[in-house]
Amino acid sequence: xxxxxxxxxxxHVADLNDDQLDRLESLIEECDADLFGWISAKTPVPVTHxxxxxxxxxxxxxxx
Length: 64
Fold this sequence. Notes:
The protein is mainly α. It is built from 4 helices and no strands.
C-alpha cells in the first residue's frame, strides 16, 4: 500500500483541501488488505470510504 498511496500522495496531496486530507488520513489508517481490495475493485468499498479521495486514488492506480 505504501507504493499505491505514497505515489498518489506525492503527486496530489498539495491539490487536496482540508476535508480531502482528512479523508485520505482515514484511509491510511485502514488495514492494507482492505485498502488493496477497495483500490483494485476486488472488494466493495464501505459507505464510509466511498468518496472522492478513494475514487482519485483508484483512478491514479488504474494502470498499475
